[in-house]
Automatic annotation (TrEMBL):
Residues 12-260 form the Glutamine amidotransferase type-2 domain. Gene3D superfamilies: 3.40.50.2020, Glutamine Phosphoribosylpyrophosphate, subunit 1, domain 1. It comes from the Eukaryota. GO terms for molecular function: 4 iron, 4 sulfur cluster binding; amidophosphoribosyltransferase activity; metal ion binding. It catalyses: 5-phospho-beta-D-ribosylamine + L-glutamate + diphosphate = 5-phospho-alpha-D-ribose 1-diphosphate + L-glutamine + H2O. This is Amidophosphoribosyltransferase. [4Fe-4S] cluster binds at residues 280, 352, 422, 425. Its EC number is 2.4.2.14. The keyword 4Fe-4S applies. The active site is at residue 12. Its cofactor is [4Fe-4S] cluster; Mg(2+). Pathway: Purine metabolism; IMP biosynthesis via de novo pathway; N(1)-(5-phospho-D-ribosyl)glycinamide from 5-phospho-alpha-D-ribose 1-diphosphate: step 1/2. The lineage of its organism: Eukaryota, Metazoa, Chordata, Craniata, Vertebrata.
């Protein structure tokens, strides 16, 4: 199928906030979401959107979306219009196939039999074409070219066993997870709760943070006091809002976040118990911010271990190790007697169909003739990439250390023995069968 047919090659960030305690809250929910989205700006610079709610029995939803960076889309004036809210979700988007339009900006809001829901999605559905055909066969029209709209429509589509008067959102979410195995981390807002959902393979990240009281006096009175809960694609966004990292959402987990706290509703298994999870290893390599925490370890530490492993795999006698500079490169090359390039990642050889902007082989240097003599092509004495085994060992070393320090194990642990990583862009081995 042609890539342009669906137009859904995107990288995104999601962020949600819900105030604890008595409502209406004194917490400035829209402002917190905005700051959180700024912390996720690297995950999407094309558009940004926020949907807030007062969480009443018949909630009032307020929405603002726009093209551009978060700080360009949201001003003090627009944030005031989103005020009077007790919960909300936000989204930063980056599309990659030409459908750069306001209509594709998230979060999406749809009316269901049980009121409105708002949905923010990070990832890319591997079976989007089939799901699109299924919805259309049921007479459901689509107004955007984003696979995220398919998610909202599938959630609104009543599961066979549900009665009209029983809004069983767990059943609806589980029905969605049955329909599509990966790739998604979702925030679903309905009435007074936010559901945080991660696909059974855990391909995209999602974590929860706790908003702690601002003053030292308040914190000393009760260290467990919580002003609210936040949920984010990456923990780095917690730093700018004074939130404390709580935990990651596990693969297949459905978490209900309410003013009463955080509750696991279910953990949906993968289609086969033999299948390991498949967290995107490229998040460690490039996409995530170095100060984010995945699987109990900081991304920075993994990248550092990759460099250490690279020194073992491809040693070279040198007086200087330098990261890639910019304007001084020509002068440095002219001065240097020899130039040896070491890349702390394996070469990217295959497209990604699960949320990273690598849609075709043609754009990859590793798939071009020049790769056979890359050193000569770029004017270096040698070019060596880190091996796939070297990368995976650097990632798993930190997970093993985290497991030993915490003693966590079993299916509820982020260090479960069935935990794996998606290396499809490096090896061509995809965690699930792709559908077109």
């Amino acid at each position: 199928m042609e890539l342009e047919e669906l137009g859904i090659r995107e990288e995104c960030g999601v962020f949600g906030c819900l105030a604890s305690g008595t409502w209406p809250t004194q917490l400035d929910v829209p402002h917190i979401i905005t700051l959180g989205m700024v912390g996720l700006q690297h995950r999407g610079q094309e558009s940004a959107g926020i949907v807030t709610s007062d969480g009443c029995a018949v909630p009032t939803y307020r929405t603002h979306k726009g093209m551009g960076l978060v700080n360009h889309v949201f001003s003090e004036e627009t944030l005031k219009k989103l005020g009077g809210s007790n919960l909300g979700i936000g989204h930063t988007r980056y599309s990659t196939s030409g459908n750069s339009a306001l209509e594709n900006c998230q979060p999406f809001v749809v009316e269901t039999l049980h009121g409105k829901i708002a949905v923010a999605h990070n990832g890319e559905l591997v079976n989007a074409a089939r799901l699109k055909r299924k919805l259309m066969r049921h007479g459901i029209g689509l107004s955007t070219s984003s696979d995220s709209e398919l998610i909202t429509q599938l959630l609104a589509f009543t599961p066979p066993l549900e009665e009209d008067h029983t809004p069983d959102w767990i059943a609806r979410i589980k029905n969605l997870m049955k329909e599509t195995p990966t790739s998604y981390s979702l925030l679903v807002m309905h009435n007074d709760v936010i559901y945080a959902v991660r696909d059974p393979y855990g391909n995209r990240p999602l974590c929860i943070g706790r908003l702690i009281p601002v003053t030292t006096e308040e914190r000393s009175k009760n260290p467990t006091d919580t002003e609210g809960w936040v949920v984010s694609s990456e923990s780095c966004s917690f730093l700018s809002i004074g939130a404390e990292y709580y935990r990651e959402v596990l693969p297949g987990e459905i978490v209900k976040i309410s003013r009463n706290g955080v509750q696991t509703l279910d953990i949906v298994p993968r289609h086969s118990e033999k299948d390991p999870s498949a967290f995107c290893i490229f998040e460690y390599v490039y996409f995530a911010r170095p100060d984010s925490i995945f699987e109990g370890q900081m991304v920075y530490s993994v990248r550092r271990r990759c460099g250490q492993q690279l020194a073992i795999e491809a040693p070279v006698e040198a007086d200087l190790v330098s990261t890639v500079p910019e304007s001084a490169t020509p002068a440095a090359l002219g001065y240097a007697e020899k130039v040896h390039i070491r890349v702390a990642s394996p070469p990217i050889k295959y497209p990604c169909y699960m949320g990273i902007n690598i849609p075709t082989k043609e754009e990859l240097i590793a798939k071009r003739p020049e790769f056979n003599d890359l050193a000569g092509y770029i004017g270096a004495n040698s070019v060596v990439y880190l091996s796939v085994d070297g990368l995976t060992s650097a990632v798993r070393e930190g997970i093993k250390s985290f497991k030993e320090q915490t003693g966590l194990n079993g299916t509820t642990s982020p260090t479960s023995s069935s935990r794996g990583h998606c290396t499809a862009c490096l090896t061509g081995e995809y965690p699930v069968e792709l559908e077109w």
